[in-house]
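Retro notes
What went well: the complex prediction finally ran end to end.
Inputs used:
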Amino acid sequence: MIFLPVNPVHIILALPFLSALGLAVVGPHRLATRLNALASGLTLVAASTLLSGFPETTALFLVDDFNAYLALLTAFVGFTTSLFSAGYIEHEVETGRLKPPFLRFYHSMYQAFMFTMLLALFANNLGVLWVAVEGATLTTVLMVSLYRTPAALEAAWKYFILCGVGIALALFGTILIYLAAQPVMGGGTTAMTWSDMMGRMNRVSPELLNLAFVFILIGYGTKVGLVPLHAWLPDAHAEGPTPISAVLSGLLLNVALYAVLRFKMLMTANGQTMAPGPLMILLGLLSLLVAAFTLYRRRDIKRLFAYSSIEHMGIITFAFGMGGPVANFAGLLHMSMHSLTKSAIFVAVGLATQVKGTQQISEIRGLTTSHPAIGWGLVVGVLAIAGAPPFGIFLSEFLLVTSTFASNPLLALPLIAGIVIAFGALILRLQSLAFGAPSGSVEPVATSTFPLVLHMIIVLVAGVWLPEPLVAWFQSIARLLG
Amino acid sequence: MPSIHYDIAHLLGALVLLLSFALLYQRRLFALIKMFAIQSAALGAAAAWQGYIQDAPHLYVTAVLALGMKAVVIPVALHRIIVKLNIARTIDTALGVGPTMIAGVSLVTLSILLVLPVTSDVTALTREDLALALSVVLLGLLTMITRRNAIGQVVGFMSLENGLILAAVGVQGMPLIVEMLVAFAVMVAFIIFGIFFFHIRERFDTLDLHDLDSFRGESR
């Protein structure tokens, strides 16, 4: 299957790692933005070699359908966001909001962030998974604080404290999992190696696993942004640079949820534990409803879409909590559609806030008149994220609602309510943002909207027609997830 | 296992827990930092003892790191920052000493009630060590909650970490402990020393997080 002499995972991980080191010393910002995009592009190329077949599982790295899919998604969104980031950074340098030393740091951290996320996805060892998620926290905290404004520092501090405690609890959960597995598997690294544990989970003490899963869910759930652990998320999205908001929403939340799901698979393999589903359903519904209602009160455009991310992570967590082939399929589809749409929206939002010079919703009006490309891009993006047909998110939400109705109609009611309430809020805000008399600057923007257009085309096509191999791929992951 | 092994491990674990209680009621920053340094030293001793009884040399590395980083380097650096930036030496606490202590005792009870029933098939040493460690984690959280000061919260966070390391060293053959300790240390070092103190200080003239609350971004 594999024709390369080396494990492709090593290449996928080495590219961002070495780029992070290299970009730390590249001074000229034009060169740095291009190198950043180039490195992300090469990572995407390396990740797409996984399509031709998976390497053997080693003690450190594991590749199966599930993480190969997420790695491709991560590398793709990472690449398109790096293209957007190039134009964004150019503008920030011109207006003097960012100074060159900070830019070196920014680009280095961007690649370090990609590295930690890909490492978390490919990690076979639960300890390495934890270290990678911790590293992702560290790099993003530093990027959120990039502007050094009081609000950015407060956001970064909140992010550090909340997610620091979150990952600390996740580590405690990981220690408990090891303690549970150790009598069966023997000590040492095997008892932390996911692929080895899966086969022998049935003999592990279920009580200890229950306790461990609660810590894991709360711990990594903080990073997913599940209510009531979500307080860091809107601040971090609103105060950091917009490309970082795009990768936070589009990628990091997925990776944190991926970590939870790996542990859920261990629970399912054991068979005698409590069902992990109801806990996830509860947190998912809570996130969906709280975020849907609070969407109405948002006055900051980046916060608006940050709350929308909480809402969608709630839907996805709910889907995986329900389980079964259809709900899992819907969850996987929703994960990718949300990543693509949300990062596209943040591209539009980033351009809009730069040209208007504000993040206040009330001060951004009539975008379709003043900047048709951004305005209509935002309209299409918001319609897609709100779940209007014919976009991909409509398809995944439809699948989820119908499968929930079939298995448990009572749970479908709050789900539908949440989706409809959020839909209303987003459309309400969209009207003033996109239509009416334009406000503020009407100067054209030079930055390309290519990533926005590309993502929206994919989301539109996915809503109308899913290719057969992709369906088969998702179905096989849905089976893995149980 | 000779009973002296068990007794000393138990003693050191309990010492770490006791120092967590001592952290709870400190009202002065220097005393808080000193207490934290002593706790880290006790943790180092606990890790070294576990290294000896489990015959696991990598735990000695953990012990040296805990001792060097958390008992010496970080406290000294924090001390310097406080002196250099002339930060107020007393801390506002959200709760009085009495209620805090009662909350702390309840948390310890909770963790014992939680851990002991589910760990019936592991050794007595491990399960009691785990109960102690979970108590230290929860008390670390409580310390963070009851402090309104950035340094107080960081010390609470690091004491929470001490609980995690205590849990990790108590479990037979746990891999990657050193890596995890380093990951935490890097995180704390980067964020605390590199970025926040200087910038928060620069912007606000205080490390009291209460003053940060107005910057919600949407208060305008």
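What we learned: Residues 150-185 of chain A form the longest helix (36 residues).
What to try next: split runs per interface for comparison.
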